[in-house]
Amino acid sequence: MTETHDLSIDQRLALRSAATRLREQFDGVFGQETIELFLHSSYDQFASRSTIPNFLPLLAERFARQRLQALAKVEGHIQDGKPVVLFLCVHNAGRSQMALGFFQYLAGDGAVAWSGGSEPGYEINPSAVAAMAERGIDISKEFPKPWTTEIVQAADVVITMGCGDACPVFPGKRYLDWQLDDPAGKGVEDVRPVRDEIERRIRDLLEELNVPALH
Fold first, then answer.
1. In which band, very low, low, confident or very high, does the pLDDT at 2 lie, cut at 50, 70 and 90?
2. 163 an active-site residue?
């Protein structure tokens, strides 16, 4: 088994447990080597900037699962017809997380959504969390993460929010650029208008995708 360096015993055990769960989920789709490569590379991406080491194996497992699901779609293992939308901003801490929250809340199982950042931050913007909580949507358990090639390739629609030239461009993808104020450093009162504009755009997007809004 591939091992990431400088891990505590608890972290090694947690990663091994995560690898077991991922192997069970993707049994018959991906082999052990691919699963462990994605898990450990995901761990390494968070390890360099995480302030909460104990949560690293959990974050790595969640991100590896998302990446493996994306790769499965790219390779044709998943053909459920559900549209996949990717929300990208700079830090993946505010706008793209609010968009992801609204999309998942309104679309339910009717579509798939992911988010990422060109320069992922360390935590979700507290004002964004509070503003979304006012609408009954909890994004506090989300985490800033990078975009990866397989995730972009798996998306049907890529929505960018302020990442400019840093956002990935792949031929044949549908791109939408949403000009939205960056909520970084702002209080809840100033974030609410951004939140409400994101909701409006998400509802319009779902209508375009022929995905009924649940709320």
1. very low
2. yes
**Active-site choice (90, 107, 167, 198):** 167
Residue 17 annotated in active site: no
CATH fold of the domain at 8-79: Helicase, Ruva Protein; domain 3 (1.10.8)
- C-beta of residue 79 within 8 angstroms of C-beta of residue 150: no
pLDDT at 22: 98
Query: Tokens representing 147?
Result: 């975009």
| Known catalytic membership, residue 129 | no
Quick one: CATH architecture of 81-215?
3-Layer(aba) Sandwich (3.40)
pTM over 0.85: yes
Q: Which one is catalytic: 107, 158, 163, 194?
A: 163
In the block, tokens 């969640």 appear at 62
